[in-house]
Amino acid sequence: MGTDMPVLQIRDVAKEFTLHAQDGARLPVFENLSFDLKPSECMALNGPSGIGKSTLMRMIYGNFHCPSGEILIRHQGDWIDIASAHPHRILDIRCHTLGYVSQFLRVLPRVPTLDIVKEPALAQGVDDDEASKRARHLLTRLRVPERLWSLSPMTFSGGEQQRVNLARCFSAHYPIMLLDEPTASLDAENRQTVIEIISEARTRGCAMVGIFHDQPARDALCTREIDMSLCAAKAA
Amino acid sequence: MSIDEIPLLQAAGVTKAFGPVTGCFNVDLDLFPGEVLGIVGESGSGKSTLLRCLSGEHELQGGQVTYTLRTGERADVHAMSAPERRMLMRTDWAFVHQNPRDGLRMGVSAGGNVGERLMAVGNRHYGNIRGTAIDWLEKVEMSATRIDDMPETFSGGMQQRLQIARNLVTRPRLAFMDEPTGGLDVSVQARLLDLLRGLVSELGLACVIVTHDLAVARHLSHRLMVMKGGEVVETGLTDQVLDDPQHAYSQLLVSSILRA
Question: pTM score, two decimals?
Fold first, then answer.
């Protein structure tokens, strides 16, 4: 596949929430949203808080319903529409094609940090030695002290948890990644490391969609941007 | 887990009424090898009834449940003879009850509880059976020194882990679980969840898990079915149903959780 071919196509996507508990109140978020994304591109979603940036990312990930339009993902040579894909297909896409750096680490109690970081790589079929190597490398770069690796991250500080989260997401190699404020809650040194790690993935050909309130991170990483307020839904 | 495979368990139009009261109505589902399906809903929504319909314990008023045997042959669960179904229950299937007393033999030692299923499938060598029982006690994080103790002497969490060992020792392909972490305190619950998740992926086990605890559902299941009044009101990818519920009842269920 040439680098001119998109790997993600957003086609006329719209979203609204219906709140049944509040007399079926409808909350339109955005409409007529379309863009294509090619390998090594990084698209910044811009716009004020509440405009639907995270909502769009979660729709691309299949975490939120897509009630209208298409979200096409190039998955192992096929185009799959996330909006209508079977749940199993979405899980397979999340395993192999689409990574998501959320703002919070959500893990089970008792599972050691190293295992949490290795898991996505193992799920992609990477052998245990290589997965361990990647995990150790990433945790070291992100300055998570080795003495913490055998502990569950549930009691770690917010910044430490976020670095474990980042290490976890980058231990696997995805063709497409979604980044929800990847540098939030990090100190300057770690922010620089995260920017480097993301840049390396982009250089490998990873296509990215991200939310960056952090202007230096946005300047360093993004090749394109979209102003989501242009697609804001008119109140119904 | 793959959708290109034949479903391991398939239900079509499953309906069961208790007199004028409907237990579950017109339920369809596909369960694929290695898949974990969570069934959530309030008490009385028909979750446990559906589980018992799927496992053949309840007769149906309508519909059909089909299970794909190891031979590839597809069998109607409710048309099987009692011995056929018993054999399936001891080999290919597991049933984990909410109350471990319902799934354990309380008058038999821990080792005996695990060994019994092995003997039921033809194991006769005492040393091997005991060895396997010890392995399984360790898998569920119980000390091998407790092998000769009676379940009565165990805590609720240990009894539940013993029930799981007893059920999984024959490496079944399908497990039915009815509130497996219900009735346990939260620290024990977390440990059991972690254990279950590990075993499910290690054994490639398909599961139908009934729970009213949405956190349990989120951690264990790939897909979720929301039931209300005996009917399935919403079904889909677990995190999508929990984070962007569409049906009024699913929204109510999700918004009713207290955040710790």
Answer: 0.90
Where in chain A are the domains? 1-97+174-236, 109-167
Q: In this predicted structure, what is the pLDDT of residue A65?
A: 95
Q: What value of ipTM does the predicted structure carry?
A: 0.91
pLDDT tens column, B108-148: 999 999 999 999 888 899 999 999 999 999 988 899 999 99
* Residue B91 CB partners (closer than 8 Å, separation 6+): B121, B170, B172
Flag residues of chain A having pLDDT under 50. 1, 236
Please indicate if any CB of chain B lies within 8 Å of the CB of A27. Answer: no
Domain locations in chain B? 104-171
Determine the CATH number of domain A1-97+174-236.
3.40.50.300
Point out the residue among B32, B193, B240 whose CB comes nearest to the CB of A62: B240
pLDDT for residue A3: 61
- B8, B141, B240, B253: best to mutate for the A interface, most A CBs within 10 A: B240
